[in-house]
Amino acid sequence: MVMTAPLIAIYGATGHTGRLVAAELLSRGQDIVLAGRNDAALRAMADELGSRAFLAPLDDPASLRELAESAAVLIHCAGPFSITGAPVASAAAEAGCHYIDHAVEPHHVKHVFETFQAPAQRTGAIMIPALSFYGGLGDLLTAAVTEGMTGIDRVTIAYAVTGWRLTTGALNTARQLFAETERITFAGGALHVGYVEPRNTVFPFPPPLGPRTMITPIPFPESVTVPRHVPTRQVETMLTARTFEEERVFDSEDADAEARAQTDFTIAVQAIAGHGGRAGQLIGHDLWRAGALASVEAAVRLIGGAAPAKSGVLSPGEAFPAEPFLRALERLGAFTITL
Question: How confident is the model at residue 3 (pLDDT cuts 50, 70, 90)?
Fold first, then answer.
C-alpha cells in the first residue's frame, strides 16, 4: 500500500508570501496545491514547480469548499484579509480543514475567533489566524517570555524594522489599518473597540539597537491573541517610527524577491508584573521568510502528530508550546532568540 502525504493548500500562492510558503513546503517533501483567483498565474506557477493548480474565486463558495475538503491544511496568504479572510476561513471551518493565515488585521482575527469557533470545534478543524511575522511571532515570543508568570500588569511588543518592501497586498492592508478609526486595544483587562490617538514613545531595545522612537498603539493582532493565553491587564504594540519614513517603503510593489529579503528586524517583548518583569527578543533578517517559515512549521506540525489537543480557533501561543516552536524556527535561520 502506497502512503501519500497529506495535501496542503496554499491560497494566494502566486504572491510573494505564497511563493515562499510553497518553496519551503516542497523542500520538506510536502504535497501541495496552489490556489487563488488568477488562473493564468496559478497554472504558470504550477508548471514551474511541478505542482497542481486550483482556481477558487472568493465569490465562489463551492470552489472554496471543494478546495478545503481536498486538503488537510489550508495556508491563507492573500491579503488584505478584511476582504479575503472570511470566505476562505468559512470554507475551512465547515470542511474540517485546518487553517492558518498571515493576517495582520485585528478585526479579521477577532472575527475568526467570534464566528468560526463553534463550526471549527464541530468539524474538528484547528484554525490559527495571524500566524505570520507581525502578530504571530509577537504572540509566540510573548508566550515564551511570560511562561509561568501571573498578575502581569503590562505586556509591550515592540517591532523594529528597516528595509521593508511592501507587496500590493501589504500596501493595501497598511493603508486600511492606518486609516482605521475603530481600533482594537486591550487595557484594564478588557478588549476595547474605538478611536485611539496614536502617539510617539521611546522603547529601550537591548544593545546594539538601543532606544528607538516608536509609534503606538499599532493595530496589530496581539491585542486580540495575547490575552487569550497570557494573564495580563494590558497589551501594547508598537513599531519604529523610522520604518515608514524610509525611502521606497510605499512605492515598492514591483520590488523583486531579492530586494524584499533585505529586511532587518528586532521583535522585543517586555512583561511587567509588580516590581519585576521579564524580557526577550528575536533578531533576524528577511521578515517575509520568517513569516513564511512560521506558517509552514505550524502546518507540518498539524499533520505530523504535533497538533494541539483541542480543535477550534487558537492563538499561535495557544496552539503550540511557544519556546520550542521558536527554537525550531531559529534552527531554520529565521532569527536568533534571546530569553
Answer: very low
Contacts with 276 (C-beta within 8 Å, 6 or more apart), sequence order: none
Amino acid at 136: G
Average pLDDT of the segment spanning 54-59: 98
Q: 174: left (phi > 0), else alpha (psi -120 to 50), else beta?
A: alpha
* Contacts with 138 (C-beta within 8 Å, 6 or more apart), sequence order: 157, 159, 220, 222, 226, 237, 267, 269
Q: What is the CATH T-level fold of the domain 7-130+290-321, as seen in this structure?
A: Rossmann fold (3.40.50)
3-class SS at 272? strand
Residue 42 and residue 34 in contact, taking contact as beta carbons nearer than 8 Å: yes
Residues of the chain with CATH 3.30.360.10: 133-286
Give the three cell numbers for residue 230: 497570557
Tens-place pLDDT, residues 307-320: 899 999 999 999 99
pTM: 0.96
Taking the C-alpha atoms of residue 78 and residue 101, their distance in angstroms, rounded to an integer, is 9
The per-residue pLDDT for 250 is 84
State the DSSP string of 141-204.
HHHHHTTT--SB-EEEEEEEEES----HHHHHHHHHHHH-SSEEEEETTEEEEE----EEEEEE
